[in-house]
């Protein structure tokens, strides 16, 4: 696990030497709080929609997913089954998204804790950059980045699966999700599984306990210095192993890029995506429940939900394109 810190050591040196970028990549406390608020909202949307479905509906949904177990035209169902098999959570094959909703609640718990303690995380300062950041900042930012990945994957998976399992007479009722959702699922499954496992069975409490312990300890050093560019090598290897185990290797410098100066330019786009996603999730759940109840697909109510989903999928796709244009691909420092 020390290799995680070896990579981080090199990334810190690179970031510290990036003359002229420090101001652009300074994370403002208020911007960080805004990002947390939006991210928590996305988790609440999923928990309040999919997580609120009756168990009987989720059981029927799981049954439908598994009927496509060998169907090459159903990559969403295949991904779900592969994840359920890998993580070995006992109920996922019987109740759709069972452990994923549980983990979503655990992740939301950590994010809510961060949101309630932003001043503590920032040590009373208004902002942080690579020259003022401590090890705890990188652990916190890394967790938030993984939480962003998890919810994006989960929403994409739900969208793709809904498309695949709602069909009548061999015809799928809603438009095929945009290609970026399939790409996201393809590219992030391993990362999704790893983060999912880390949050199972009280992983959120373990993470917060370890994070708080680091925050109060002498090991919470500033990660950058004026000489070598990185202080990571100052920390004892055994301590690094301990921290890596407790914090699950979630360290990142990416937020210095995507929560820096550009955040103020696209904050509203993030809020619009969260709001659109909420309506889209509600429509997905409504359509699923109508279909599971064998509602007539030619009924006005059914047709309305199909139209709403298709409309929001297109809208969210345009918002994602806009965000990608600002951000570009995120650098991999983990």
Q: State the end-to-end CA separation.
A: 11 Å
- Please estimate the helix content: 55-70%
Structural class: mainly alpha
Strand content: under 5%
Query: How many domains make up the coordinates?
Result: 1
Number of helices: 13
Say how many strands there are. Answer: 4
**Physical arrangement of strands within the biggest beta sheet:** 1-2
Strand and helix order: HEHHHHHEHEEHHHHHH
Radius of gyration: 21 Å
* Oligomer category: single chain
Query: Looking at the structure, what is the overall shape?
Result: elongated
**Average pLDDT, to the nearest integer?**
86
Q: How does the major sheet shape up?
A: 2 strands, antiparallel
Give unreliable regions as ranges. none
Secondary structure elements and pairings:
Blueprint (H helix, E strand, L loop, with lengths): L1 H15 L10 E2 H21 L5 H13 L7 H13 L10 H19 L1 H4 L5 E2 L6 H31 L1 E2 L2 E2 L6 H21 L3 H14 L20 H11 L7 H4 L4 H30 L7 H28 L7
Antiparallel strand pairs: 1-2, 3-4
Helix pairs in contact: 2-5, 2-7, 2-12, 4-7, 4-8, 5-7, 5-9, 7-8, 7-12, 12-13
Structure description:
The protein is an all-alpha fold and about 325 residues long. The chain has one domain. About 65% of the residues lie in helices and about 0% in strands. It is built from 13 helices and four strands. A two-stranded antiparallel ribbon has the order 1-2. Strands 3-4 form a two-stranded antiparallel ribbon. The longest helix has about 30 residues. It is elongated and about 70 Å long. The chain starts with a helix and ends in a 7-residue tail after the last helix. The model has no long low-confidence stretch (mean pLDDT about 85).
